[in-house]
Amino acid sequence: MIRELVTRFGRDNIGFLWIMVEPLLFAGLVGLVWAYARGPENHGIGVMAFVASGYIPLTFLRHSFGRSAKIFQANISLLYHRQVKVLDFIFVRVTIEAIGAMMAYIFAGIVLHFLGYFPIPADIGSLVAGWAIYVFFVLAICTMLAPLSEISSVIEKLVPVSVYISIPFSGVFNMASWLPPSLREALMWSPLVSGMELMRYGLFGDAVTPYYDLFKALGISLICLLFGLILCRRVRRTLAVA
Question: How far apart are CA 62 and CA 19, in angstroms?
């Protein structure tokens, strides 16, 4: 992790803290646009808080997916050390992105709270549980994207597209309770939606009605993780360490 941080951010200026600047700017600008277009509140909750609570996790997803492509080739020289495994590369990058996103979330929440746009979390347990589900599923998908990008160059090109495909299934733009029942049931197959619903319930409390399915969320995440581990094991055999 230290090597990755120094390689990406160096030792100048604010260093690692740059990792939370983009999520803050992205969520802040989108929040201002939404607040201007829809007003300060929508469905009884603050628009700025709603946008920040959704877009910051989304930037974590985007960065994690994007940096999983060709991650083995970029770090292949480290495999000379027997104690270093290919999974370490994925775990480190997802962990760094998750820490950066959490820092951005907390910092944005504190600043917006003092400005009157962000509530004090109503249920910390639900907020943490939702974030854990979100991170676990992103990690599982990254364990699939990383080896697949090594197997086919086409997959590498499709990784950025996968981010945009995942947006409608991420729960960023709306709560499940705002959707028709049939669409809501279909979205319960997305662990991202369950994680986002729990996070927003933990933030807004009884002001929202959360819908989530922990059994489906954890089951799908575990299946993706198992498939990803099998792919990583297969690809590791083809990597030639200089």
Answer: 13
* Inter-residue contact 201 to 177 (CB < 8 Å): no
156, 67 in Cβ contact below 8 A?
no
Structurally, the chain folds into a number of domains equal to: 1
- In sequence order, the β-bridge partners of residue 42 are 45
User: Could you report the per-residue pLDDT of 146-202, keeping only the tens digit for each?
Assistant: 888 888 777 777 777 777 777 788 888 888 888 888 888 988 999 999 999 999 999
> What is the total residue count of the chain?
242
Domain coverage including residue 13: 2-236
In angstroms, the CA 11 to CA 116 distance is 35
Note the pLDDT tens digit of each residue in 44-85: 787 888 888 888 888 888 888 888 877 777 777 776 777 778
